[in-house]
């Protein structure tokens, strides 16, 4: 289950952003998740709950998954179409000269924090969360 590795990566990035901004608690993380990313949303949410509750900064934090529709562009006729419904063959002209425009995203969109005193910020230092990265779907802080 690579969803747990993705969750560890998210938590590490959240900790780094929180530390850089003097934040000690996170109440929610919104993730953009592409329709063809290969990540199973229910497994991701289960992995999040298990891992996030082990870290003080993310304990009790909600993971909100926003789906991103997969869209493919046809190089031959210039049309864009729903990837999942039609695959790699353009439904408009039948060409296979297509490229995926969106739908593989696994990207942090937003990190929410409760009101807090900056004096309670996370201390400096590296995270002890393993560095598990899905290279095909890199996570990015938006």
Which keywords apply here?
three-stranded mixed beta sheet; single chain; three-stranded antiparallel beta sheet; 23% strand; 142 residues
Task: Write a compact overview of the structure shown.
By secondary structure, this protein is an alpha+beta fold.
Task: Explain what this protein looks like in three dimensions.
- The protein is α+β, with helices and mostly antiparallel strands and 142 residues long.
- It is 25% helix and 23% strand.
- The strands form two sheets. It has a three-stranded mixed β-sheet with strand order 2-1-6, covered by helices on one side. Strands 4-3-5 form a three-stranded antiparallel β-sheet.
- Helix 1 packs across helix 2.
- The longest helix is centred in the first third of the chain and has 19 residues.
Summed over residues and divided by their number, the pLDDT gives a mean of 86
Largest sheet: 3 strands, mixed
Instruction: Look at the helices and sheets and give the structural class.
Output: alpha+beta
Number of strands: 6
* Poorly predicted spans: 117-142
Share in β-strands: 15-25%
Order of helices and strands: HEHEEEHEE
Inertia-based shape: elongated
Largest sheet strand order: 2-1-6
The rounded distance between the terminal residues' Cα atoms is 25 Å
């Amino acid at each position: 289950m690579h969803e747990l590795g993705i969750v560890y990566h998210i938590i590490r990035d959240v900790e780094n952003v929180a530390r850089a901004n003097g934040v000690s608690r996170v109440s929610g993380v919104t993730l953009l998740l592409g329709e063809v990313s290969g990540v199973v949303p229910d497994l991701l949410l289960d992995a999040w709950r298990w891992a996030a509750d082990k870290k003080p900064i993310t304990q009790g934090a909600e993971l909100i998954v926003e789906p991103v529709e997969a869209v493919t562009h046809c190089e031959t006729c210039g049309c864009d179409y729903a990837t999942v419904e039609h695959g790699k063959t353009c439904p408009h002209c039948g060409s296979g000269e297509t490229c995926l425009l969106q739908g593989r995203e696994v990207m942090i969109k937003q990190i929410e924090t409760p009101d807090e005193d900056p004096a309670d910020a996370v201390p400096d230092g590296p995270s002890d969360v393993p560095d598990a990265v899905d290279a095909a779907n890199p996570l990015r802080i938006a």
